[in-house]
Design brief:
The chain has about 325 residues and is an alpha/beta fold. It is built from twelve helices and twelve strands.
């Protein structure tokens, strides 16, 4: 009854691994480097070395498992090599689907994103309306395409369910681009300014619990994982309250944020280092996306911890792991 987790060293995947082990379920992980994964994943995880973009490796990892949690993906909104989003997010999902169908798994839980939904200009949204229009960034469009692949595979017999996380934070083996990176920057005073807008948040452990909860829900069902929306100013205040040495960066107007974003992407194309805030990230933050996770609460009894307590625990765990070096 082994369960495969792809993306096991990422924020969501590592939390899923921990949750499965807590429930005493045998776990296998597809990892790019077995030696690196051995150092950061819990003992007892069976490791299969290979890349999600390599079908042979994915088939090897999936052989004999009864369930797949496909959490692998490239979460960045910006990358100099724009084709990587297609290779990893779309091609990797295609491989996971093919291998899962071949193995005849009983459950396939796909980590999608809230980006695939229609976002109203004002108010909240839920799981009922998938946006048929291409979104603005390579990342978003790749996740839309991957989501469509999983939907199409339902007709081929794939027992898929979908989880749509908001901005995920929480203790993780490595700090990846996203909310965790912002928390580290705020705690170590490396965020020079705040920009207008904000984002919805969810702790990685709560997100993992939802993944396991939907494993036995109706095939094709979708659930949003989100605690609540917070402005970046609110995030910064909570970090400062949780971490005494953190300062509160000043807010810049929207026009200056756009200028910083555009100039940053030009510079990034030369240095190959991510901009302070990409245009895609800026568009997301200023849209003030507000997902409604009521379905998960009503149908699965799911809940998420408050950001205040989650951030405090996260920063202390990061500090213990040496991830908050100034």
């Amino acid at each position: 009854m082994t369960t495969l987790v792809t993306g096991a060293t990422g924020n969501v995947g590592s939390a899923i691994v921990t949750e499965l082990l807590t429930r005493q379920r045998p776990v296998r992980a597809l990892v790019r480097s077995a030696s690196r994964a051995r150092a950061i994943l819990p003992a007892g995880v069976e490791l299969v070395e290979g890349d999600i973009t390599n079908l042979a490796a994915v088939r090897q990892a999936t052989a004999g498992v009864t369930a797949v949690f496909h959490a692998s993906g490239l979460p960045e909104q910006w990358h100099r090599d724009t084709e990587i989003f297609e290779r990893v997010n779309v091609g990797g999902t295609r491989n996971a689907i093919y291998a899962a169908l071949e193995a005849g798994v009983q459950a396939f839980v796909y980590t999608s994103t809230i980006d695939v939904f229609e976002w109203p200009s004002h108010g909240t949204f839920d799981e009922t309306r998938i946006d048929a229009r291409p979104k603005a960034t390579y990342y978003e469009r790749s996740k839309q395409a991957a989501d469509r692949l999983v939907v199409a595979a339902l007709d081929a017999g794939l027992p898929a369910r979908f989880v749509h996380p908001a901005g995920v934070y929480g203790p993780a083996p490595v700090i990846t681009p996203g909310l965790n990176q912002l928390l580290v920057g705020l705690a170590t005073n490396k965020v020079p300014v705040l920009i207008p807008g904000g984002l919805p948040v969810v702790h990685a452990t709560d997100c993992a619990r939802l993944h396991l909860a939907v494993e036995h829900s109706a095939v094709g069902s979708r659930y949003i994982a989100s605690e609540r929306y917070l402005s970046l100013t609110e995030v910064a205040h909570i970090v400062r309250d949780s971490w005494p040495n953190a300062n509160l960066p000043r807010m810049v107007p929207r026009w200056l944020a756009r200028a910083i974003s555009e100039a940053g992407e030009v510079l990034a194309s030369v240095t190959n280092k991510p901009p302070l805030v990409s245009r895609g990230e800026l568009a997301f933050l200023t849209h003030e996306v507000r997902p409604d996770a009521g379905r998960a609460s009503r149908e699965l009894g799911w809940s998420a911890r408050p950001f205040e307590s989650g951030v405090s625990d996260t920063l202390h765990a990061m500090n213990k792991a040496g991830q908050l070096r100034v």
